[in-house]
Amino acid sequence: MKFTKVAVLITATLASTSSFVTLASTDSKTSLNMNLRYESVDQDNALKDASALTLSTRLNYKTASYNGFTGVVEFEDSRVIAGQDDYNNTNGMNAGVYSVIADPESTELDQAYVQYSADKFTAKVGRQIITLDGHRFVGHVGWRQDRQTFDAASFMYKGSDKFSASYSYIAKRNRIFAEAKDVDSKDHLLNLSYKTSIGKLVGYAYLLDADNGVDDGLDTFGVSLTGKKDKFSYAAEFATQSNDAADADTNYMMLEGGYNFGKVTAKLGYELLGSDKGVGFATPLATAHKFNGWADQFLGTPGVGLQDVYATLAGKVFGGKFAVTYHDFSADEGSADLGSEIDALFVKGLSKNFKAGMKLASYSAGDAGTGKVDTDKVWLFLSASF
C-alpha cells in the first residue's frame, strides 16, 4: 500500500516536472546585454589622468511562469579591452597613481532569484535588483559596469490602481566594486505609495545596518510627492535621518519644478543633504551618480552638508536624446562655496538592438580647503541588447 502511494506520488511529480520543463523550454526568455565604454578622467592634482576601455556583458535567463512561480539567473562579466587600463579600479590596481574609474574586472552571479506572483501579491527571494522612487535612496547604480544588486527577500502588494506597498529585507549588498567589497547587512526597506489627485504620495522607512558587530545603524524616514499638471511637473521630498555611529541627526529636502515646451523640457531644482556634528546625510544604497553631478565629487555628502541648486534642459535633437545640467554647490553648515558643474549627454539609437552615446562632466572646484579639485570626465559608449 505504501509502495503504491509512493509510486503515485513519484508519477505525479514527474508529470509536473515534465510539464514545467516543457513550459520552460517553450516560454522562457534569454537576453543578452553588452556595453562597450571608454572613460577618461582629468583631475587637477598629482594623480595621472586615467583612461579605461571596458566591456560589460550580462546574460539573463528567465523561466516561464508555472503556477505563479518564475526563476531568473543572470551572469555579469566586466573586462578591460585592448589593455586600456590606465586607471585606479578601486580594488588596488594603480591606486595612488591614476584617478579612479570604478570599473574593476569581475565575473559574478548578478541575479538569481525565485519569484511568486498571485493576484495583487508578489514575493521575490534571492539575489535581485531593488530600485525605489528614482534611485535616490535605493538603486542599482546601473551606470557602472558592475551594477549593484542585493541578496534579499522582497514582498510587494498592489492593493489597487492607487495604492501599493513593498518591504525588503537585505542580507547582503553586492556593490559595484566586485565581490571583495560586498557588505553583509541587516537592512529593512518599507515603501508605501498612494496616487492622489495632485500626484503620487510616498512614505518610506529605510533602516540600514551593516552586519559588522558595530553600532552603525542608519535610519531614514521620509515622504515625497511627485505630479504633473498639463505641461508642468513638480516634486517635493523631505526626510530625516539618525546616524547611530556618529550620534547625529540630519535632514534631506528636495524641491523641483519643470515645464515641457514640446521638444524640450526645462527643470529647476534644489536639493539639500544636511549636516550635524560634522556628519552629512548619507545614502549608501543610492544610485548616487545620478545626483549632484556626474563628475562624482559628491557620492558621499561632505561633513558640512551639501546644497545643490540645478537647472536642466532635456529633449530630442538629431534623432537622439540630449540633456544638459548646471549645478551650483554650497555647504549646508557655514558659507563654503563647494564649486559648480556642467553635465551633458547625447544618446542615439542606431537600430533596434544598438545605441551609442557621449557624456561629459566638468566640475570646477570652489573654495580652497574643501578637498575638491577641478575634474573633467568624458565617456563614449556603444550598447547592444538582444
Report the β-strand fraction as a percent range.
over 45%
Secondary structure tally: strands: 20
The average pLDDT is 93
Helix content: under 10%
Helix tally?
A: 1
User: Pairing-aware structural class of the strands and helices?
Assistant: mainly beta
End-to-end CA span: 53 Å
Order of helices and strands, N to C? HEEEEEEEEEEEEEEEEEEEE
Shape: globular
Q: Report Rg.
A: 23 Å
* Uncertain residue ranges: 1-21
Largest sheet report = 18 strands, antiparallel, barrel
What does this structure look like?
The protein is mainly beta. The protein contains 1 helix and 20 strands. It has one helix at about 1-25; strands spanning about 30-45, 50-60, 70-85, 105-120, 120-130, 150-160, 165-175, 185-195, 200-210, 220-230, 230-245, 250-260, 265-275, 275, 280, 305-315, 320-330, 335-350, 355-365, 375-385. The strands form 2 sheets. It has an 18-stranded antiparallel barrel. A two-stranded antiparallel sheet has the order 14-15. The longest helix has 26 residues, at about 1-25. Mean pLDDT is about 95; it is low at about 1-20.
